[in-house]
Amino acid sequence: MSAIGYMCKADFDCELGDAPGYCRVYTSLSELRAGRECVAQCGIVEVRVELINVVQESNYDDEEEV
Question: Which long-range contacts (CB under 8 A, 24 or more apart) does 48-53 make?
Fold first, then answer.
């Protein structure tokens, strides 16, 4: 299973896999442009996020009701 997303090109080039924390992948170009005004200068990349392996299954049995 995979999904397409969009990222700031500078985040992809310099941060992904190297920086602590996270690099955001946006679900649409409009969401990316709204969330990261820097992309006018940095650029934009389209990425594919692919599920390789489920490391831990979901468990909602212990979740408190809100």
Answer: 48/2, 48/3, 48/4, 48/5, 49/2, 49/3, 49/4, 49/5, 49/25, 50/1, 50/2, 51/1, 51/2
